Amino acid sequence: MAIVNVKDAEFKDAIQEGVVLVDFWAPWCGPCKMIAPILEELNGKLGDAVKIAKVNVDDNPETAGQYGVMSIPTLKLFKNGVEVGTQVGVRPLTELESWVQAQL
């Protein structure tokens, strides 16, 4: 499944079904650029089992504020619309994969 960009207006719908990993990021953020290829690799490994969504905090401050995002990158994991975990900062692929697999 392709990684999707999600805006404030569509966020609630985007996280309603299944397991969704949301990357709160910004284009100027160095660590966000570092985690992007890790998320691409994770997406390739997990396929359709998990949806990965990206929320640009500069363009979508409402969602970032609602979920208490203070630092980026912040990864939030949702299962059927309910937040089940948060990771802040760059994490290795193996750690992220284990974290997400625990919700499948």
TrEMBL record:
User: Which ranges does the record mark as transmembrane?
Assistant: none
Instruction: Identify the keywords attached in UniProt to this record, alphabetized.
Output: Disulfide bond, Electron transport, Redox-active center, Transport
Domain Thioredoxin span(s) in chain numbering = 1-104
Keyword Metal-binding tagged: no
Q: Which Pfam families match?
A: Thioredoxin
Determine if Metal-binding is one of this entry's keywords: no
Check the record and name the InterPro entries matching this protein: Thioredoxin, Thioredoxin-like_sf, Thioredoxin_CS, Thioredoxin_domain
NCBIfam families xref list: thioredoxin
> What family is this protein classified in?
Belongs to the thioredoxin family.
Q: What is this protein called?
A: Thioredoxin
